[in-house]
Amino acid sequence: MKIHNQDIESHNAPRIAKHQRAFQYIRSEVPEVEAVIERLQQFQIAIPSWALGTGGTRFGRFSGKGEPGTLEQKIEDVGLLHALNQSSGAISLHIPWDNVDDATKVKELASSLGLSFDAVNSNTFQDQDAQELSYKFGSLHHVDPAVRKQAVQHNIDVINRGIELGSKSLTVWLADGSSFPGQLNFREAFQNTLSSLQEIYAHLPEDWKLFVEYKAFEPFFYSMTIGDWGQSLLLANKLGPKAYTLVDLGHHLPNANIEQIVSLLLMEGKLGGFHFNDSKYSDDDLTAGSIKPYQLFLIFNELIDGLDHLGWDHATGLGWMIDASHNMKDPLVDLLQSVEAIQIAYAQALLVNRSALKQAQAKNDVVGAQEILQDAFRTDVRPIVAEARLRSGAALQPVRMFNDLEIRKRLIEERGENTVATGL
Amino acid sequence: MKIHNQDIESHNAPRIAKHQRAFQYIRSEVPEVEAVIERLQQFQIAIPSWALGTGGTRFGRFSGKGEPGTLEQKIEDVGLLHALNQSSGAISLHIPWDNVDDATKVKELASSLGLSFDAVNSNTFQDQDAQELSYKFGSLHHVDPAVRKQAVQHNIDVINRGIELGSKSLTVWLADGSSFPGQLNFREAFQNTLSSLQEIYAHLPEDWKLFVEYKAFEPFFYSMTIGDWGQSLLLANKLGPKAYTLVDLGHHLPNANIEQIVSLLLMEGKLGGFHFNDSKYSDDDLTAGSIKPYQLFLIFNELIDGLDHLGWDHATGLGWMIDASHNMKDPLVDLLQSVEAIQIAYAQALLVNRSALKQAQAKNDVVGAQEILQDAFRTDVRPIVAEARLRSGAALQPVRMFNDLEIRKRLIEERGENTVATGL
Amino acid sequence: MKIHNQDIESHNAPRIAKHQRAFQYIRSEVPEVEAVIERLQQFQIAIPSWALGTGGTRFGRFSGKGEPGTLEQKIEDVGLLHALNQSSGAISLHIPWDNVDDATKVKELASSLGLSFDAVNSNTFQDQDAQELSYKFGSLHHVDPAVRKQAVQHNIDVINRGIELGSKSLTVWLADGSSFPGQLNFREAFQNTLSSLQEIYAHLPEDWKLFVEYKAFEPFFYSMTIGDWGQSLLLANKLGPKAYTLVDLGHHLPNANIEQIVSLLLMEGKLGGFHFNDSKYSDDDLTAGSIKPYQLFLIFNELIDGLDHLGWDHATGLGWMIDASHNMKDPLVDLLQSVEAIQIAYAQALLVNRSALKQAQAKNDVVGAQEILQDAFRTDVRPIVAEARLRSGAALQPVRMFNDLEIRKRLIEERGENTVATGL
Amino acid sequence: MKIHNQDIESHNAPRIAKHQRAFQYIRSEVPEVEAVIERLQQFQIAIPSWALGTGGTRFGRFSGKGEPGTLEQKIEDVGLLHALNQSSGAISLHIPWDNVDDATKVKELASSLGLSFDAVNSNTFQDQDAQELSYKFGSLHHVDPAVRKQAVQHNIDVINRGIELGSKSLTVWLADGSSFPGQLNFREAFQNTLSSLQEIYAHLPEDWKLFVEYKAFEPFFYSMTIGDWGQSLLLANKLGPKAYTLVDLGHHLPNANIEQIVSLLLMEGKLGGFHFNDSKYSDDDLTAGSIKPYQLFLIFNELIDGLDHLGWDHATGLGWMIDASHNMKDPLVDLLQSVEAIQIAYAQALLVNRSALKQAQAKNDVVGAQEILQDAFRTDVRPIVAEARLRSGAALQPVRMFNDLEIRKRLIEERGENTVATGL
């Protein structure tokens, strides 16, 4: 199915008066609204192809219906999201979950829906049918050079696939680690990982980036070979200027101050981008902003401060992506909620009175600094985000429109009940 | 395959002299060794049927070979373990992962291997093929009475199956919870769970126990309806004298003092038993004692103190079970390691000089109390545990014997490479 | 110093037009505003006497100036807060930090400022000069009955002091625990605590409540004798109908779902009240709502749901108190910020569309339930809170007024630079 | 008081036969015992001067008696420890807690007791009486250059003091951080810290080291400016070859894999040394090995692996120090227990069969690798540690000898009951 301009207009028309009232009010109170809207309109959050189907845990997976069974259908799904919010204009593929048989055709389809291809992702944490050697004991860090070689080659293949599609970055996430003390020599595992990444790096086109993701823990692990930002940054620095650290919000030990990590990575010029999601206990991959919205705001607060310092050119190179799992909700609705929550946090952070904040900090006015941040966070910015959507030709209320159009029902009619998306 | 007495003897013979030397030494140093050996010989740890195959995470599962494909083969596997260590004389089934077509035949097989049937486990955290209603949004706590009824009925079926096999307890573990704030009314979820459990409880034979397991968190959850020992105890108290709390060592928030929980549950007469495993970060289901052996010792220290207080009769009713997942190691070897680690912790705790400890506590002699515990823990009790095995007709070194006999190789020859055990 | 009505009016006058504009807007959008305002006006948050001076850590304490050096000055401080926000109409005393020589005079002073006396707090976690036996190894749980007796008597003294002042509840927080495995017999420590509390309970007037506070951990502790809500509830149930559990938001293990605990305690009719504060890592005693404002909202969401169920009469018996420490900020300003954040969370929770939420829950509409909560939380309720203050005769912007009036400067002039408040 | 050789001999004589029996047994089982003893005899653990008195929390401090009131008495205390165990041959001073009026005399005293001076420690987390500017809002990271300058100068003074005493390293631990979001610009705080450290580094003698300590959190903090090993390493790398990271075992987020951090820091040649202690929940500063002895063993396991790789020359430059707090126990006894636990972990780690471990790792023999580590850890190495003491002229059982000699009683007689050590 496709969403047409007149669908958007039909959705917006009965809501426009109420929206205008709200927007007029906020514009009268917050003069800098126009600058915020401009930033919001430019801001695109990539949708990972593997988030379009129902996720699961090791215990159960309760599949939805009408899931995209092919890459074309996944692109179509992202196209629907983008039509609804004009903020999801990129898709991030996962190889080999996504088979790209005809890159030209795939690119044309994406392009027709206004989509570009974000970072490509390799997968060396699962064994594939045709695969010679197993990743049971890791991939890039493996003690056996033959396994490392196979994993390196897979990453090179993914880069090549990405080049065909117009991607500009490779994200490497590894489940390499160990389950028991003694299993692994940490130093050699690190060195093996580094040398594998160096081989991959050598195949990276000049204008590409390599995102090195870290993760504190996985169920059943005792150690992770790229476990925290310190290790990722160490690798990125040893690799060279095209290597960066990627921050997934769910990949930290309890209570970690993620916003400080973001600030320091930006300071070092080594922040590659984000995997947005939220979590209560561990890597829960919940909807962005659904558990700790103030933390999401604080992260954007650091991003803006860092970009003000580094120059906003830097922002265009950052990878902004959702990486959530959808076990309970319709994946498409969940993604709309995540994008909205991210935009809200971004808009709030853009409203922070930065010169006042700097002054408060300069005199250790702790009360004042806190009030400045809270003032921005407590502001109801939803009309600003809606206005940005309106101006970009999107729906005032994307979730509502999704429901009203009965999009899932129509997808089920098109695709059938039992299609299953590849991925998590 | 089967392990015969002469296999055990062939394994032990070349090792007996070294063992005797070690045992003589420890016996000369620790006079209470005989009492410890007696307790160890009586101590049987149940093996869960679902732990006999390779586990996995939501990302990957790297299957082993020669896994038990049928219930009979699972019983045979536990029989092998028991032959090796004479301490795994019970099996715990999971319905419907384990189909019991002919209970009499199954009982005869188990009995021929010296095995009894421990707690039966229900499963309402996955949907089964023939099932009418889904557990996507929970089971015993579900808002829809029809789903609750189905889940209750399943538990009653499991009890009935257990009666046929000679089990004396039902373990209920639920993945009931919520992923997002607002999704669930906590109070109503608790009340629904209580009323469902009351219906199950009503079907419990007079000499049965109901074990209510709790778990602090699962990946992708925001709340668990039976999340901690407080909630489980509340339910157990409301249910009645046959209901108990079951402690899985991996089901706690970070840094929880599990030994204190064990002590208080014993005090209340409501400790049902254990699921033994170990963990570094979350519910990692690693080999017992592989990460925090001192914690395991401290738990046994509380158990012994509590049983001394309550009377050791109480111990026979406790459920002692391993609940680990085996992703990296051969499941059978892993289980042998877990049993050994549990026995070591138990033996160390039995060596604690309790009258001296009580005296130290009575005068707040913190140094002394610590030294008494450390003295027991630092003692090398392996010869004592080996002696207990020797006297029971088991192998001095079960893991070694497993390897030397090439048991897995022989199981693969019998069963083939591609058998997959049902379960996790 | 004293704040007079005309001070309030002078502060409000230049701000009233802007406020009216904001309030008109929100009233036009949210019809239930009047009911919310009524609840807010009734809502009083007690100020602990020990929070009026600068706190510290074990490393350093950086004193402020003009701190209240006497109980009269502490009452005067709370009077200032109450004059500014008309929501801090109670003070909670800590004995023996607060010496009450002449209860009648003290009551008159408080009454003249519109203040009543909330829960009285005992202190058996520090040794006092005149004290015979030490609490080094605990108080109510102590192995030595003489120490327990001394601690019980202190609590009885505190009750008697509270009766003179018109308090209606006693809060017991213990630093009783242990630092090393073996130091304590958990069971006996619990039983000693119970029997001590029973003696205290026996002295409780008919219309009083006993609040049993729990705490997961303290620096340098290995176990806490009242460590979680499960233990506190066990004690409260054994004590009787006047005993309740008190929830301090900072007293939990990492990632605990506090809102669920609140819901269950209300369900059991055993929620006594709150110590409000916020934290990033442990018991940080930071300003309420400064780190996890969404969690604070979710707690109020459960409170309202529970009170709707139990009846709002129950609310009047709940203890609402701030328990923060003020190391960096002026304590009075910090308390104003905490009260404001609590009121905001309360107002947001009152805006939740409860019938829609129940419907969404009834059909497992996870998206809808989340949107309903987020809709309330994302609403800018500050004009509603300000309107409630305005109608009660308080300042539109209490923090601003505190600064503009240079209240601290005037207190320093009155009291001198080097006064130090008793307490933390 | 002083412990003489004949005191040691009187203590050892009645115990020697039992010890010999135990040692003969272990020597017969473990052939590499002699090499282990040699390493143990060389291994000296520095005692911090601030650990010789009773510590406290922000709530209470329960002082002991006979505490060292002067630097001379502190040195005397360490001399007693060293006489008892011959493994505490260094003291680490904290300026200005320790006033060094006459360095020559102090050195002579230390030398007469066989003690050298380990790292000197600066203190910019408390305000001192004579100090011009306050560290309330931090020191080396402070927004005000004048405060930074004062803190830098203090560190330079400490270096100068250390030079006089023969120290070779400066440890910098900062309580610099923030309590509330917004209070601090993370990037500028880092840059200020770096530039302050650079000034200090410039004053470092050629043969000195600068240890940059990190800490994840403090009570009442929201961020720490040197919060994890990643930040410390970043600073150390920017500073130069004399700067290293110092690992305090209690300074991590929950569940951190400290042994992996140790391994990577050694790999980078940037591990400076340790502050040994143990913890259950946060920075509890408990006796080393009292809570997680297996973790302590795993850390030593990584150290030995790293030193085998780097060369053991590197070990002589590592700072080995206890940093615990003694609230419940006699500080001297507690320190003896810590040293013993550290030596036990070291001895166990030295027993690990490294060539077998490497082979197991090379073929992903997870079971085998685990068994190799557990085999070493489960060995009762206490006779080996005692033998090392015996050969060095120390007591077979230092804690027992401390008690039997009634050392504290004699110190109280000498010093009086009410002496209080400076420090925590």
TrEMBL record, chains A, B, C, D:
GO terms for molecular function: isomerase activity; oxidoreductase activity. Keywords: Isomerase, Manganese, Metal-binding, Oxidoreductase. It comes from the Bacteria. InterPro entries: L-rhamnose_isomerase, Xyl_isomerase-like_sf. Gene3D superfamilies: Divalent-metal-dependent TIM barrel enzymes. The keyword Kinase does not apply. This is Sugar isomerase. It comes from Sphingobacterium corticis. The lineage of its organism: Bacteria, Pseudomonadati, Bacteroidota, Sphingobacteriia, Sphingobacteriales.
